[in-house]
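Can't paste images in this forum, so I'm doing it all in text. The chain is below; anyone willing to post the predicted structure tokens underneath?
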Amino acid sequence: MLSNIRFFALGGLGENGKNMYVVEVDNSLFILDAGIKYPSSELYGVDEIIPDYKVLVHAKDRIKGIFLSHAHEDHISAIPHLINELNVPIYASNFTMQMVKDLLSDEAFDLEKYTLNVVSQNSIIKFGNVRVSFFNTTHSIPESLGIAIHTIEGSIVYTSDFTFDQSGDLRYQTDFKKINTLAEKPVLALLTESLGSRLVLNGGVNQALDYKLNSIFANATGRIIISLFSSDLRKIQHAINISLKHHKRIAIIGRRAQRIVDIAIADGYLDIPKESLINLRYLDEKNKNDDPDIVALVTGNRHEPFFMLQRMCNKNDRLININEGDTIILMTAPVPGTEKMAARTLDVLYRSNADVENIDKRLLTAAHATAEELKMMINFLKPKYIIPTIGEYRHQYGVKQLAMEIGYDENHIIMLDNGDVFNYKEGDSFISRGDINVGEILIDGTAVGDVNDFVMKDRELLAEDGALLIVSHVNPKTKTILGDIEIVSKGFVYVKESEQLLAHIKEIFIEVSKKHLAGKYINWNEYKRDVRNETSRYIYEEIRRRPITIPVIISTDV
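Text version of the structure:
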């Protein structure tokens, strides 16, 4: 009996981050990754964005598991937000699972309540007539896995992020034998990453990076400070190796980084001789932490390395103050939403008179498959269909162009948006556009779903036009206003310079109050609404601004 197969994404298509893909085989659902996306600057106060997974809650009994490819935030960090409603088994490599447990422990989850299964590339998990297997891939973080879902119709292979870089540590190497084994049987669909599809590199990136870093180290006369993303363990090891080669002592700065590093050292994925690893003490009159043999790795997620460097330049850090004679190496190419902060950090660094080395982004992009590597993966597996995932539309389109270059028919390259469904049954395929309700859940703090479009609109208005509070005491028995009407302006106008405007707002309040206090009963909601509407109308007519207007009318019998 042939299987009915569907594939759709709740996030990760047409965007950078928030990766969450679903493969449905007959009635069984297999979830591939569950990541976050970081917000752009216009999303005021939002910490992170996760896929709207609510569509899966009613189908929870059909979900066989969440299968995680690697430990980067855009692939695993939605787990703490959705695991209470989607308490289904999670499958991941040992290192990735350690990071998941760290995330859950950080949010005070009881790990005993969840099914957390560690797998390796030798694991084969059976679910009826479906099997799930894994293969090692090369990425910037240890124990990255490709995932294959084997069905009667052929296998569906999800590469996640990968490269074929052969110059890295053996513990990061792709298992080509496993990929060839997959290719021996029909591959129905290849879900390949897209982020590097427009990169045409001639190889030798790591060698060029080595040469650049060695040159900087050789010419540095004082302390060296390197910014790195805490999840990019290959580059952290790269920096450590070069530091050791130049006989430096190494300090790692960053709360989150310390935990990742501890796990990586325990599992043997970071090699740092104990005698070379130092802890910096707090700055004081005697201790300056400025010995010329120190290399400080300033690490964190997203904006954190930039923030810490600015703090060090402004002499506000407790461990390091950047001075003339220091060498700063920036190995953190801006991620979406941090471009402005990165540019500002560069400006602040140059004012410090330190020697600033901003590593070319092209030397830092070796973590994603380039055009030639994508073509190699396609040629290895020879899938019937190619579905570009993980990337913005231009990246997905880049994969389409590459596939057509090597002979694929356009009808077998499936371009999807989040919510579109690729259907395959009895040898035929079709796409259902917008078949799944998709969206985003904005995370502000720790709560899920507390920030909706209305909240964001209010924050936008507050940022642009400020707020105006009209505070008054009203006696409902005598139907009179007691005392003065107080007007509080926050981010709207300066009170002392706008006395005429605010005086007229008080008059509007009095006029509206006369109408509402004339009747037998006071409808407080209508009273506040009319004050707000009349005030807003007047302000817009006068100065073309729309502050959030909040009438605070207090019922007082005294």
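The chain has a mean pLDDT of 88. The two ends are 81 Å apart (CA to CA).
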